[in-house]
Each structure stands twice: as C-alpha cells, then as structure tokens.
Structures
1.
Amino acid sequence: MKILDICDLSVTFSTPVGDVFAVNNTSFSLNENETLALVGETGCGKSVIANSIIRLLPQNAKVTGSILFKGIDLLKVSESELEKIRQQEISIIFQNPSLSLNPLYTVGSQIIEPLIIHKKMSKQNSIDKAIQLLKTMGFSNPSKAYGMYPYQLSGGMNQRILLSIAMTLNPSIIIADEPTKGLDNELVRDIIDEFNTVKRVNNSSIILITHDLSVARELSDRIAIMYSGEIIEIGETKKFFKKPLHPYSQALLNSLPERGFIAPNGTSPSMINVPRGCKFHPRCPYKKQECSKKIPLFYSYDDRSVRCYLFQ
Ligand code: SF4
C-alpha cells in the first residue's frame, strides 16, 4: 500500500544567472515497509526531492505538483501541521552527521529529547529507551556511548546516532540523504548493517538517497535512477542490476569497479540551459532523430518504467 505518492513534482530555483531546473515533472510512490533508493550523480536533484518532501527548501525555490503522505498534500498543509508530521511521521537524516548533531550536548540527551517532548515519556524511561536503541545500533557499551559528545565519536558512530534519533519516534518514513558519503568501506558496511536493523526493527519505509550503487543494491527493494532532475528508470532493484534498461543506467553500472570502471562519456548537462528532448541525448550512443526533439514518456518494460524511445 502506498504511503507516499509524489506526482509531477517540479522544483525551480530563481538565481541571478537564470532559472535552475533542479527537478522536472517527477512522479514516484513509496510503499509501506519498502526501501526505495534514489540514485544519481551529485547535483541530479535527489536531495532537492528529499527537502521538498519536508518543505525545507530555500525561499527562491518554486515548487509545483503534489506530495501526498497518507492522503495529505504536504505542499498544502499548514506549517504547524507539517511540523508535527516532520517530528513524528517523517524523519530525515542529513548528509553530514557532524553538522546535524549539536556539539554542545551529549548524544544521549539528543536521543531522549524527542521522546520526552513528543512521546511525553519520563526522563528515566526515555534514557532506558535510548540505551536500548544504542544497543540495537551496535554500540558495545551503550551506557558509555549515551554520555559521549559527538566529537568523541567517529563519523560512522555519529551516523549511527542519527539513525537512533530517527528511530526514536518510530516514524512511518525515514529519508536518509547520502548516509555513507565520505565513509571508508568498513564503515559503509557497518551503516548497511544498521539500516538492515532499522528495516527489521522499525518497519519504517525508507527513501535512501545515494550516489553509491552498491549501497542501493544491498538495501533497496526498488531503485529509481535520476539524471539531470528527472527519474529516467524505476523498478525492482534485483531486475535493475541484472539488466539495466536506460542507456544512462547501463553507463552508470559500467562505471562500477567490478564492471571495468568505464566512465560514462561526457558530462551532465547544465540545469539552466537544459537540452531539448531526452536530456541524455548529447551523450547517448543510441540516439535517434526524435531523441533531441521531444522528451520521451515513460514506457513499461519487464514490470519497470523507463524514459527512453528504445522501449516505445
Ligand atoms: Fe538515448 Fe534516445 Fe533513449 Fe535518450 S531517448 S536515452 S537519447 S535512445
């Protein structure tokens, strides 16, 4: 059953050098207990989608379309209603754990705060719950970790603290924005394990925003590939890794070390002077005449959707 339904979402930023078309007519849904990975290169619009869902975009953003959460359009609800949803229903874990945590407070006090404020738990019960969460998140000495400050913990440990905070209120949706960015391979492995724990313990739906295909492969049920502000392919993760459909998806997979490290030709187009037609056409080895004239629609193939004329 759908818990989030995004329809025709477009986000444009007005800037002194022109309008930046960050997200264009993007639609997708998220089902209960599902993990959906939004994958693409830096600047393709993934984080803009995450911030649109919880309406945390700067004032120069123009947002159109709809974002239905349990039937409520998040783009239309009042700020006070949205604040409640942000606090209790949709948790977001931002990219940089050391910037997201308050350096002046112990990690324990940052975990118990939402429990005391929103769940009206007693201080002792919230401490017990926090210590239990830290244990679930793999801290071998959770009581000691509870009393530590963010600067005393590694980047990977702070990432686990953010996951613990996200889990406190048992939200319906957790949005994780590049949770493994900048971490070494061992810590990436740890974070993948912690997310698997969250999926098992919390039953939350997860939107995983990542540029790392191997993280998406391990954690997601479905995968959506983004290119220049658009989803160009979406479907079951297993099928995607067996046979990616869109030429850009194929190029992305070929850039993985185990597939030969072959970088895609060219670079992503400008978000201001957007190419006509399929945005990938200047780089596409299969382009046809129509590709540079009209934006392709989504076509269905093998229970997946792909925005490419080859599947017309
Ligand atoms: Fe290539 Fe055309 Fe498909 Fe775009 S629509 S990916 S240019 S074949």
2.
Amino acid sequence: MSTQDVEPLNVEQIREDFPILQREFDGNQVVYLDNAATTQTPEPVVDTICNYYRQTNANVHRGIHHLSQEASIAYEEAHDRLAEFVGASGEREEMVFTKGTTEALNLVAYAWGLNELSEGDEVVLTEMEHHSSLVTWQQIARKVGAEVRYVRVDDDGTLDVDHARELISEDTEMVSAVHVSNTLGAVNPVGELADLAHDHDALIFVDGAQAVPTRPVDVEDIDADFYAFSGHKMLGPTGVGGLYGKKHLLEEMEPFNYGGEMILRVTKEDATWNDLPWKFEAGTPLIAQGVALSAAADYLEDLGMDRVQAHEEEMAEYAYDRLTEFEDVTVYGPPGDDRSGLVSFTIDGVHAHDLASILNDHAVAIRAGHHCTQPLHEKLGVAATARASFYVYNTREEVDALIHAIDDARQIFA
Ligand code: 7TS
C-alpha cells in the first residue's frame, strides 16, 4: 500500500491521550522512541482498566452472581474482539489469551512440539528470530532430537526466500518466522512462507509481536496455523497477549498448563478438557488485562490500521534518511522506504550503550543492546545496536530531537 493513499493520523490529537508524553526530565520533555520494547497506554485503555476494577471486578466462568457474569461476558467478548482484529473468523475459539508472545511460543512449542516432533524432524526458523522463538524451539528440538535450521538473512537485511525454498523439505514439521523483525524492521513474506510450509505438510507459527501493532494483519489471508502478539506493544497493558490458532489444531493439541478453569470434569484418576479457548487458559485468567486489550484494539481500529502503518513507515523513512546523512552511522536492515517503523544503527567508535546514555541526557528514550536477537547481531558483526522505534504519537520533530542528540554524542566522542 502506498503511504500516500491514506489520510495522515492527527498526531497532535492522539498525543492528548498520552499524558506520559508530557513528562520532563531535567527540563527536557521526554521523546519516547522505545516503542518496539513497549508502547504507551492511552487514556481510554487506562480508563477501561480503572473502570473494570471500580465497577466489574470478579472472577470469571464460575460465578453466578451479577459481577461475575458481567466480568465473564467482558472477558469472553474480548477474545472475540481480538480474533476479529487479526482476521480470525473462528472468534473466541481461535483466540487464546497468553501473557504475551513469549508465552504463546512456549505454549505451542510445549503443547504441540513436545508431542509432535521427534528425531529427524526439522524446525525451520529465520536468522532474525527474537530469542522468544529461537531459544524456545532450540530447547524443545533438543529435547526431542529434532534439528533447527535457519533461513538466511541477506546482506540487505531481508529474508532470503530462495534459501527458505531450499531448506523447507519433507522433514520440516514447523516453520516459525517473525513477521516484522524487531531489529531490522524487515517485513517478511509470511504468506509465502506459509505456502512453502503447507506444500511440505508442515505448520507455520508467525511471531507477530511487531506486526499486529503496526499494520493490518489478517491471519487467514496469511494462512498462519499459529499467530502470536503482545498487548503491551499495541497500546494495551503488560501481561497479556494473544495466540491465534486454527481451531482443529487447538482442538487436537494437549493442554499447556493444568489446573482450574481449563477442565470439564475431574475424577481422582483423570480429567477432560474445557472448550476452546479455555482449555489453554489454566487458572484465573488475565481478566482486567484482556478487557483492556480489547479497548486497545478499539483505539487502534478507530485510528485505522492502514493509517497507523502509513505513519510508522513515514517515521521510519524520515529517520532512515536523516541517519544516513551521517557518514559514521550505519543503519541495519532494508532501505528506508521498505521497512516497518524502527531503525537500528551504530556510530563508528561509539558504543550503543554510551549513545543511549547521552540520548537519555536529552530525555530521548531509545534502546541499546542486542534486542534479544543475538545470533542476528553476530551476523551483522556488532555486539549491540542502538534502536529508535516509532508509534502513532511520534512526530518528525521528535526524530529531529533524536538526530540533534545523536549529533551531540558524536561531538562528545569525536
Ligand atoms: N517477538 C518479537 C519480534 C519481539 O519484538 C518481542 C519483544 C517478542 C517476540 C517477545 O514479546 P514479549 O511481549 O513476550 O516480551 N521485543 C522486545 C524488544 O524488541 N525490546 O524489548 C522487547
């Protein structure tokens, strides 16, 4: 989609919903550019959390009193809302609430992987996986004697799809790929990877932690078997996220955790499992968080995900263009006009942590480190990068403030 085709976001108005953006440190107003780590929470979402606790709070599913009924309805409808948000027509049955993307990956790796993978099987990842995917599949594969293989990242920071075509074979049982890289900003052709996986009777898990917040996502269009995301990266609260799974797969899978809420009937010898998605939500679930996540989806949908995407891309392109004006700055990942809303970079002779610290003196918040993609950083030949990541409330002026602060750091280290 061309970013010119949609009406720009009214960023000034959006910022009014985020009082945290008015905070000052030593007289400098915060410039929050660490959105790939976590996004800020708008007033309507904060209100939803507060109102939930003020008016509705009760445990769900097992109560027959009014408050429990209200809480149950709100919590159940939140599943429908998030299913709809990512294009899952199976509604709540295909939408499990988890703590976030990491737990969703662990859920599938344990509940599906431990039971379905065996010696000789292959799990195909990409070199740009976040540790939540990479480490999880690595450890599960080790337990069952399966092999993990990695689709190469090209020098231009995009996925080598031809290599994926070579790697994915009859031995492949699972392809697990990140939709949008949290380090490179690359947007992977996950629909194409899904087709490749399915051509070889393998499944595909898509890590949508950086995609669901930043672009319209349709899991059925992608034909993902599993698709995960985190609420705190899309204006929602911490501690809640979603796992979409095709209904027949979730039905066939063993539970992940055992306990209350996930059972239908229990005897001293055995137990049977509750309906989807509750079979995968053992114990008192993330009620307030789930309801608030649904409000975050409403907020984003009101903005329009195509407009959110256009804004992200505009911010990233502007930052890319400004950063690449510096001769001593290296920006990693695809070109400025072909990336999601973040830029990871290094400055010759300046450690990323030192840079982040100087930027912090200007109240510019970025992230420095390996961003939980250590093997990718090894490939890039750097131990750490600095990363600025943008969201719906960021402005060009804030990118200018970033550039100004970087220039200051360059003078200090010159
Ligand atoms: N996958 C990707 C692509 C991510 O960017 C992250 C978090 C996760 C999975 C894990 O999400 P969680 O909500 O379960 O923690 N990424 C980052 C980051 O880039 N900086 O801090 C967290």
